[in-house]
Every structure is written in structure tokens, then in C-alpha cells.
Amino acid sequence: MPNFAGRAHGFRLREVVSPEGVKHYGPLPESFGGRSLKGATKGREGKDSQCGKSQPKSPSSLHGRPSPTFWKPLGGFKGIVTPGRVELQGVVMRQSSKVSLWGIHALTGGEKVPKPKVECVLSVDSGPHRRSWCPARAEVEAPEGVGELRGAEAVMLDAKGREHRPIPCDVWGDPWEQAPGRVGLVFLLPSLEPGESLDILVRLYEEPLEGRADVEVVERDHKFEVEVLGAPFFSYNFEPGQVRPFIWPLLGPEGKEMTRPPERPPEFPKGEWDHPHHKSVWVAHGDVNGVDFWSEEEGHGRCITVEAEGHGGNAAGWIISHNEWRDANDNLILLEHEVITIYATPEPCRLFDIRVHFKAPERSVVFGDTKEAGVISFRVNPKLEVRRGNGIITNSFGGVNEADCWGRRAHWCDYSGVLEGVRVGLSCFDHPRNPRHPTYWHVRDYGLMTANIFGVGDFEGEERRGEGELVLPRGKEIRFLYRVYVHAGLPHEADVAGKYIDFACPPKVRVKEVRVV
To answer: Of the N and C termini of the chain, which has fewer Cβ atoms inside 10 Å?
Structure first.
């Protein structure tokens, strides 16, 4: 019997999430277990029922044929006494393929929700692109005298301005990205058709809303462990003895490990364990003021995490780390501020952004011209390597494998294949505002994939050696932003090109109204 979890804010039960990470929005009866419920709809036989609705063929529609499903709160309604997560049981009596259930609408009684301080209406325009679980951002000017706003919830409005369907929403989690006097918002759009627009009502609160987050970030033993919709996603490792922070494991569809572990497993042949400094997902460079921060050979530098924090949310969660790049004699060379934003997208789609800020603290910093570098790098699971016959490399220009993609510039690069019988893939997107966009890719058939804007001499030939150098003057910063897309299927099956458009050309958001409540 599958369990489902719904979020209740003051007993307005917003949503139901299956163990597979699919959010459902289906009705409950007007009364059940002695409690009054609002928002009931008719079932298949036209009676009040515990039926959801099957997901329509059109992603933008919320109408569809009911699916005969019986809902029951685990422990009964007596256990629902505070805002938070409500566990439900659902029994699908007869299920066709890909049945999705839509919307538990409202549950009355009990404690009241916190009163919002501000309400705002946003207009969202999809543009010429279809959107599916697309992250979007907005910035709202905070009214004078309101104070800090740290919590948010959002609901779609119908054509008549009535509240229609809740969507995940949070106040943006990185203070570096918050302009004074303004509130940054992030939300997820479940579906929009090309040319479609909608209005969203956002309520802002002084404190984050209580209850379990759809993205959970928990610190344990110098690791941030990330779960999305109850399923493990990745761990961010920053133990003091490490050469640099890295992400591992990174889990894809059906819990498959997408990247190579940081240390050689005993069953893996020692002679095949090349490049031991390739640790899953990492940030590094082989020539920073002459110091090697790429390899782990004698005299290498280290990237030390001096401060880190993580917190979850309903639309997104964040890991924020402050790192110092120091040479073998402990001299400070470079400062790094790294922000990882993890989105609450349902399986098999998982998304996270990595924003890297470099700052030259004490003197100018020169990033050398070398292929041994990557603002973001990946070493995929050995079972996905092209050289083993299971993998394929693809880039945004249609290049295939190392022969077409190594040393070439592209908007994105993808490493896909069959992993233990499951078709999976890992894409990295280069943002149009990044320096020297589109980036070169240092990508190999043996499993390496690196976004590298520096290695011009290696990629274009010795006659251009030195063109890849980048000088960062003392006190100045440079920023990079990438999105990582973990998906099922090959790039065309996972709509990698469409997900890149979501990143590079997101929906346009306009603030229509801001009012103090």
C-alpha cells in the first residue's frame, strides 16, 4: 500500500507527494473521520469520493478523468494538530499507465496558519517554449517598515483571479544574491505551454513556514546530505583533511550512482583506476599563480572550507560554502564563495545549480592556460564510460563522443548511457553570462567531463598558447553559474535542449502588485 505525504499549512492541505517524487493534487470528501473537508469533487460514479484525477494529456490542463483511489490519513485525522507534513495512504483500485492524482485542496479546523505580512501577484510568461517543472525567479521590492521576510508560499490563480493550484515557492536562500530592500523568490512551474501565461499569488511571512521541506539538507560529520521529495540525491563532502570539497554520491534514476567514488573500491582493478584526483563532482584549477590546485601530486595546493551552511525548502534547498585556496606553504591565494541550489523537481528529473564566485584577496590572481582545470568537473561512473561501450557523450552542436566534443565549445555537454540496465544521463549547462561563453569542454571517453574556459593552448594549438589566461585583479571578483541535470534516458529522450532553454532563457516574471496584509 503506497504512502503519500501532503503538506498542511494551518490545515490547508496543499499537496500529496508519492514516494517516487510525483506531486499529486486530488480531492478528499467533504467529511471523513468526523472532520469537515472542503474542496471535494465528484468521483467516477458522480458521488463524493476519495478519488483523484488522472493527469491530463495536456500538461497545462488540470482536468482529467478520475482515477479510483481511496485516501486515508495514517493515524487518522486526530494526529493532524500542527502545521506540517501529513502522511496519507492511497490504494489505487485500478491503475492505467502513468496515473497521476491531482489535488487535496483544503482541510479545516485546528490551529491557524501564520498571518502573512505581504502578498504579491506575479505574472509569468512561458515565452515560445514548453516548460515542465521549470525553476523561475522573481525579485519583489519589500514595502517600507515590513522588516525581514523569510517564508513564502504560492498558489496559481485562475482566469477569474481565484486561488487554483499551489506551487512550491521559497525566499531565495543565498544572502549574497539579495539586494537591499528586496526579496528574492524562487518557485517551480509544473507545466506551461508555449505562449501561455498565468498569475501567481505569493504570500510572504516573517519566518519560514513550519513542516518538512521538499528539499532537505542535513549536516552530518562534515557532509551535507541532500534529499529531494524524500529520496536521497547527493552528499557534499568538506572534511578538513580533504584536498578539496566534492559531491559524492550523486544519485540518478532508481538510485543509480552517476559518478565515480572518490576512492577505488576493492573490487575495481587497481591498474584501471586512473586520475585519482578525479573525485566525482568538484571545482579545481591546475595553475593559479603557478600553484597546482588540480592534481594531488607533490606540492599541490588545497581548497579548504572555512565556513559552510545548508538549509532546505519547498521549492529549493541551498548549500553555501566559503573556501580558501592555499598553497603547500599555507599562503592564501584565492577566495571562493560557492552556492549550490537544489530544486524540488520530481523524479526522474533532478536539477541543481552551482554558482562559483572567485575573489583575489591579497594580490592579483592569474588562472593559467591549461586543460587541467574546470570550474566544474565530473568523473562519471566507470560503467558509463564511452570506452567500455555503455556510454555516449553529446554536446549542444550534435557532437558525439571525445572525437567530436573534446576541446570544442558548446552550450552544454551530456554523458549518458546504460547503467545496470537503466538508461541515465548527466548534463552540465553553461550559462550565457559566464565568462567566455560558450565554454570549451575537456571531455574524455574514459569518463571525464569538465567545463574549461582556460585551456585554449591545448584545445586550439600551441600558436594560441596564453590566450586562455585569465587575470583577476586584487579585490575583484568573477562569477560562474552552471546547472546540472540528472535524467533518465538519452539527451533527446530527456529533452536536454529544452532544459537548457529553461536555464538560459527562463520564463519572464513581472511583479503586478505588492500589498501589505
So the answer is: N
List, as one string, the DSSP characters of 27-94: ---SEETTEEEE---B-TTSSB-S-EEPPPSSTT-----EE-EEEEETT-GGG--SSEEEEEEEEESS
Given a contact cutoff of 8 angstroms between Cβ atoms, the answer to whether 168 and 214 are in contact is yes
d(CA 133, CA 495): 12
Q: What are phi and psi of 327, to 5 degrees?
A: -80, -175
CB-based contacts of 301: which residues, under 8 Å, 6+ apart? Answer: 288, 291, 292, 293, 325, 326, 327, 328, 333
| Pairwise CA distance, residues 81 & 61, whole Å | 33
Q: What are phi and psi of 289, to 5 degrees?
A: 55, 40
Helix (H, G, I), strand (E, B) or coil at 176: helix
Give 271-297 as a DSSP string.
GG---TT--SEEEEES-BTTB--SS-S
Q: Which of 387, 449, 416 is nearest to 252 (CA)?
A: 416
Strand segments, DSSP code E, in 194-269 are 197-205, 215-219, 223-228, 231-237, 246-250
Band of pLDDT at residue 78, cut at 50, 70 and 90 = very low
From 296, 306, 364, 295, select the one nearest 334 (Cα to Cα): 364
Which residues touch 2 (CB under 8 Å, ≥6 apart)? 18, 19, 89, 90, 91, 92
Contact 109, 60 (CB under 8 A): no
CB–CB of 347/369 below 8 Å? Answer: no
Distance CA 213, CA 249 (A): 21
Looking at 105-196, which runs of residues are DSSP E strands? 106-107, 118-125, 131-141, 151-157, 163-167, 169-171, 182-192
Distance CA 320, CA 356 (A): 10
CA distances from 495 to 223, 400, 491 (A): 32, 17, 6
User: Which residues face 296 on adjacent strands?
Assistant: none
Look over the chain and give the mean of its residue pLDDT values, rounded to a whole number.
83
- Mean pLDDT, rounded, for 37-60: 31
241 φ/ψ angles, rounded to the nearest 5 degrees: -85, -5
Amino acid identity, position 502:
D
pLDDT in tens, 436-488: 999 999 999 999 999 999 999 999 999 999 999 999 999 999 999 999 999 99
Stated pTM of the model: 0.81
Q: Within 13 Å of residue 348, how many CA atoms lie on the same side as its CB?
A: 19
The answer to whether the CB of 412 falls within 8 A of the CB of 431 is no
- Closest residue by Cα to residue 200 from 187, 213, 215: 187
Report d(CA 408, CA 29) in Å as an integer.
58
Buried b / exposed e along 205-233 (16+ C-beta atoms within 10 A): beebbebebbbbbeeeeebbbbbbbbeeb
